């Protein structure tokens, strides 16, 4: 059977996903900080209000390195032609009754690289990493009605409820609800 080439409009650029160790994350601290600043500027609710200075974002990521070293946090980065355009983190629950559980945090794709499948690739790979670590129940929360909710629904996550007035909008205009999601891996 002859392969039919995908129409150019639907062809997606090749995304490379890498798990960062603390050393490589340190090398990419500026890129990771750029991602966080870009998301906050774009109005995403990801723990910070605007304006977020680059050094503040860098400091936050620097704080994560220690947890990576201790094996408590997994960080994946997505590259498009060697440019870091996305990241996501898996925080492993420490409780002795929850060694099967982990929380997904800071799923970020640069505004210039959205709707190219980067977020989906990051999530798929994160699920693979989680399974390999025996973490079969994943949880997360995200602003109700955000773009991210579409991604999680697309990836088979289940929404369980909404908490009102959870976090301030990045522009400080009002409090917004958050939605809680989970996914059970086979
Ligand atoms: C949410 C986010 C990570 C999505 O990343 P992305 O790389 O653009 O997502 P993908 O291209 O992989 O999308 C995969 C699918 O998810 C859904 N989806 C993703 N973004 C969507 C949007 N803005 N509107 C509707 N559906 C969307 C679609 O089904 C999409 O498939 P399609 O493009 O074939 O229709 C990105 O918008 C982002 O970084 N937002 C700001 C940060 C943020 O809010 N993070 C979540 C914190 S919990």
Q: Can you list the ligands bound to this structure?
A: coenzyme A
Rg estimate, integer Å: 17 Å
Helix count, per DSSP? 5
Spatial strand order of the main sheet: 1-2-3-4-5-7-6
The largest β sheet comes out as: 7 strands, mixed
Q: Mean pLDDT, rounded to whole units?
A: 95
Order of helices and strands: EHHHEEEHEHEE
What would you note in describing this structure?
With 186 residues, this protein is an alpha+beta fold. Helices cover 31% and strands 33% of the residues. The chain has 5 helices and 7 strands, in the order E-H-H-H-E-E-E-H-E-H-E-E. The chain has a 7-stranded mixed beta sheet, sandwiched between helices. A hairpin with a 6-residue loop joins strand 6 (158-168) and strand 7 (175-184). The longest helix has 16 residues, at 54-69. The termini are far apart. The structure holds coenzyme A. Coenzyme A is lined by residues 39, 44, 46, 107-109, 114-120, 140, 142, 146-148, 150-151, 154.
Helix-strand blueprint:
Elements (H helix, E strand, L loop, with lengths): L14 E6 L1 H6 L1 H13 L12 H16 L3 E8 L2 E10 L8 E9 L8 H15 L4 E7 L3 H8 L3 E11 L6 E10 L2
Parallel strand pairs: 4-5
Antiparallel strand pairs: 1-2, 2-3, 3-4, 5-7, 6-7
Helix pairs in contact: 2-3
Bound molecules: coenzyme A (COA).
